[in-house]
Amino acid sequence: MNRNYIIMSCLGLLLLALVAIGLYMRHSDTERISELESQLGALREHEKQSAVDRRVSKQMEEIAYGQQALSEERSIEAIRQSEIAQEMTLRSETERQKAIKAQAAAEMSAEEALTSFQLAERQRVEADKQRRQAEHAKLVADTLNYISLGRTLGASSYDIYRAGDTELGNMLAYAAYLYTSDYDGDLYIPSIFQALTQSSGGRRIYNTHDGSISRVDILPNDNGLLTVSTYGEIFIHRIHGTQMTTHIVMSDKNYCFRDVYAAKNGKSYAVSHTGHLVVIENDKTRVIYLNGVDKPFSLQYMNDGKQLLIIGGHSMALFDTATDKIIGSRQLKFQVVCTSRRDYKPLLFDNRGHMYLVNTLDDMTNEKVPVSGQVTTFAGSKNAHLNAYGMSDGTIWLIDDDGKTHKLMGHLSQITRMKFSSKRLYTSSYDGKLLFWMTGETQIKPITLFQSNSWLTDFTFSSDKQYIWTGDHNGTLTQYLISLPMIAQRIKQNVKRNFTKEEWDYYVGKGIPYRKLID
After folding, report:
1. Do 224 and 238 form a contact (C-beta atoms < 8 A)?
2. Residues 444 and 398: beta-carbon distance below 8 Å
3. Are strands 243-251 and 233-240 parallel, antiparallel or unpaired?
4. pLDDT digit string (tens) for 45-94?
5. Among candidate residues 197, 208, 201, the one with its CA nearest the CA of residue 244
6. Helix (H, G, I), strand (E, B), or coil: what is residue 381?
7. Between 4 and 486, whose confidence is greater?
8. pLDDT tens digits, residue range 369-424?
9. C-alpha distance from residue 191 to each of 81, 487, 488, 495 (Å)
């Protein structure tokens, strides 16, 4: 039973399986058919799409072929353009090479032109230099010739004038002035300057004093000339054109005046060797006895003229010009032989080679005189940086700030007065000469302003420095014109005609172009 049951069960199961398989196979065919249909539809759609794609592809291929043809045409054109560019590049390079060669040729030409220009310029400069040298040489030669001519004319003028022919002498003197001044020559050369001063009539002599004039001073504000003498004379002189009037302030032979000072306060002071001081104010005089000052001979102002230092042989006193009283005195241990000024202070010289700068009455600086011999006068110039020592034997020692010394020889006797004016040194002496020296020259030589027949005791400049006033041992007062422009103007006024042809050829020279002295 179990066996049959089992067989039946198996058969049932087998039948069930067959049914299931049949059902499954039926169901599978249906799905397969559906799937195949679906695939067929898809294939049909794919075929349609493939047909479209083939048409599109064909079109794209045709487009590609067109693009390829266009690209090939463009490539061919690019190659052609490249060939054109290369050809242009070659042409450009050829032109550039030509330009380089042309530039090099131009630069070479420019360099050659510059070299030629520089050579021509050097030749021009050298020619101009030679021309200037030739002109300078000619100018120097002409200058030297005309300056030499001026000296010759001056010497001729001096001799002819003294011989009595004043007309021709004046003409020659003026010609000497013109040729010398036109060519910057030295008008102070003795042969020229003496002729000029002689022809100008620049010296006027006035016999005024009975005694020896000991001092000459200019009154303030050009109010006149103040002179004193050893005969006790005090005179005031005033010039009116060519005339001089003299006012006698005092004349007493009991006095021996040695110095005078015209103060800025309107007073004047004269000191007598007898020991007296005369105060002059408004043409009135007052005599003050100088107690304690032995044989006073010099007046030196201090404190801008507010005080006077009265100096004697072995003593000195300080005088107040406001009160006209002595405010102090001092005895000296040395003998004073001459006085002057330096650094705006009184300077005393003794007989033993020393000098003393007076700072105050009680304060003096003792120094050794830098030269040997007896000093009789002194002059210093801060502008010229020079000090001059005049000696008793007529020698003048000139010393600069560096200590360099010049020995000036021109006077034969004691030097009495020296004054600087710019770089010119004016000197007077007992030998009667008034000299001046051009201290800036390499060789300092004397130039004679004039020669007196008497001892020159003193001199001073006018306020405008155009005149020198001198006093001498005979009591003569002399005015001397030293201004070259004024001298030339006076000579020109004295010239009344021009040279004749014969005079020109004889005195000036046939080879010198004729020139008129006056129009």
Report:
1. yes
2. yes
3. antiparallel
4. 777 777 777 777 777 777 777 777 777 777 787 788 878 878 888 887 88
5. 208
6. strand
7. 486
8. 999 999 999 999 988 889 999 999 999 999 998 889 999 999 999 999 999 988 89
9. 104, 15, 15, 19
- Please check whether residue 308 is in contact with residue 261, taking contact to mean a CB–CB distance below 8 angstroms: yes
**What is the rounded distance in angstroms from the CA atom of residue 464 to the CA atom of residue 482?**
11
Task: State the alpha helices, DSSP H only, in 232-338.
Answer: none
Q: Is 340 exposed, middle or buried (0-12, 13-18, 19+ CB in 10 A)?
A: buried
Cross-strand partners of 244: 239
Q: Which residue has the tokens 């072995």?
A: 314
Residues 6+ apart with CB under 8 A from 496: 167, 518
Phi then psi dihedrals of residue 512, to 5 deg: -95, 125
Tell me the C-alpha distance between 450 and 196, whole Å.
12
Instruction: Give percent above pLDDT 70 in the chain.
Output: 94
**DSSP conformation letters of 84-147:** HHHHHHHHHHHHHHHHHHHHHHHHHHHHHHHHHHHHHHHHHHHHHHHHHHHHHHHHHHHHHHHH
Q: Look at residues 454, 448, 369 and name the one whose alpha carbon lies nearest to residue 411.
A: 448
Tell which residue, 366, 372, 370, has the closest CA to residue 399. 370
What are the pLDDT digits (tens) for 231-245?
999 999 998 877 899
- What tokens were used for 237? 């002189």
SS3 (DSSP) at 502: helix
Quick one: tokens of 267?
A: 């007073």
Between CA 491 and CA 10 the distance in angstroms is 187
Q: How far apart are CA 265 and CA 285, in angstroms?
A: 15
Task: Count, in order, helices (H) and strands (E) of the chain.
Answer: 5, 28
Which residue has tokens 């910057």?
184
DSSP letter at 518 equals -
Compute the distance between CA of residue 449 and CA of residue 488 in angstroms, rounded to an integer. Answer: 16
Tokens of 402: 């560096």
> The tokens of 241 are what?
């054109």
43: Cβ contacts below 8 Å, ≥ 6 apart: none
Neighbouring-strand partners of residue 425: 420, 437
Contact (Cβ atoms closer than 8 angstroms) between residue 297 and residue 288: no
Looking at every residue in the chain, the average pLDDT score rounds to 88
Q: What pTM value is reported for the model?
A: 0.70
In terms of Cβ atoms closer than 10 Å to its own Cβ (0-12, 13-18, 19+), residue 483 is middle
**Number of neighbours of residue 229 by Cβ within 10 angstroms:** 26
As a whole number of angstroms, the distance between CA 346 and CA 338 comes to 11
Question: Residue 324 has what DSSP assignment?
Answer: T
Cα(257)–Cα(275) distance, integer angstroms: 10
CB atoms within 10 A of CB 502: 8
Name the packing angle between helices 166-182 and 2-162 (round to 10°). 170
**CA-based torsion, 53, 54, 60, 61: positive or negative:** positive
